[in-house]
Amino acid sequence: MPTWTDLQPFFVSGLALGGVYALSGVGLVVLYRATGVVYLAFGAVGALGALIAYSMIKAGAPGWVGWLACVATAAAVTLGYGLVFGPALARRDPLVKAVATLGLTLILFGAMDLLWTTGGGQSRAITLPADNSGFTIGQVQVNWTQVIGLGAGVVIAAGTACFLRYTKLGTAMRAIANDREITATLGVPVRRVEAAAWLGCGILAGVAGLLLADLVALDATTLTFLVISSLSAALIARLRSVALTFAAALLVGLVHDLLTPVQALSNYRDMTPFALAAMALLVTSRHRVMSAGEG
Predict the structure, then answer these.
(1) Which of 36, 42, 243, 275 is most buried as measured by Cβ atoms within 10 A of its Cβ?
(2) Rounded distance, CA 50 to CA 223, Å?
(3) 28 lies in a domain?
(4) Within a domain: residue 295?
(5) Of all residues in the chain, what percent are helix, strand and coil, respectively (each to 5)?
(6) Structure pTM?
(7) Which range marks the domain in which residue 210 is found?
């Protein structure tokens, strides 16, 4: 078994990864609460933006221009999808909504595979800060991207919770989640509110794509399917609680990375999101059954 000294670097990387999963999971939760759509294309949209940013930076554009292009691309694709298909999906069952966004995932993944095929072992990378050397805590090296990843997760989670609770738009999103038809009859511009939710989710997808491209790898497949980890955190929170989504995301990131130095379990670390989500859903279901039995 590895010692605590061996685990420390993975503890730091797990927190950073969990922070990015948290901001991604919050985006998924907000969109689901406003529209009822589980946005399975979240990772693919972020990957597309990150690859566009990489191409622009490689062509000589300043780094910040590429970063803005990443976020703008993810926001535009998500908002465009929501404006075109959102109204048609509003009254469909959850399975149809999920499959529809899965179709967008496959389209984007195919486009990325066609346009950014890696040849000759060439690797791609995005470094967010110009100087990513970071600092040392004890014997652990912490880079600035890891700090940004965790910090962004904390800020987005706290900011979103306040937004949903204290702003008119946030209140409207919560009302739509409870009953779309009644909210519309009260004069709330449902289409406008849903468009804001799609746009916000797209912006978070672009930010997550940038951070994960630096923290993990700039690879279309890797970034596309990392949405599973974010989705597992949202599922643990039953696609409702922002605070629980944040806590679950940190847990997923930590468990995933802390298993890396454990030789007997490292090959199974990618199962972490599935295992944690399954256990949480089983516990929740058992509690609900017991509560119903007692009633």
Answers:
(1) 42
(2) 9
(3) yes
(4) no
(5) 75, 0, 20
(6) 0.89
(7) 4-116+124-290
Q: Which amino acid is at 112?
A: M
Within 13 Å of residue 54, how many CA atoms lie on the same side as its CB?
25
Please give the DSSP secondary-structure letter assigned to residue 238. Answer: T
CATH of the domain at 71: 1.10.3470
In a domain, 214, yes or no: yes
140-142/135-137 β-pairing: antiparallel
Q: Cβ-count burial of 127 within 10 angstroms (0-12 exposed, 13-18 middle, 19+ buried)?
A: middle
Which position has the token pair 């490292």? 266
* Tens of pLDDT, residues 56-109: 999 989 988 999 999 999 999 999 999 999 888 877 887 888 788 888 999 999
pLDDT confidence band for 203 (50 / 70 / 90): very high
The closest alpha carbon to 105, from 265, 254, 224, belongs to 224
Nearest one of 28, 90, 56 to 241, comparing CA atoms: 28
Six-digit token pair at 237? 């929170």
185 within domain boundaries: yes
For residues 229 and 41, give the distance between their C-alpha atoms in angstroms, rounded to a whole number: 13
List Cα–Cα distances, 136 to 92, 111, 122, 147, 230, in angstroms: 52, 41, 31, 12, 28
E-strand stretches of 168-256: none
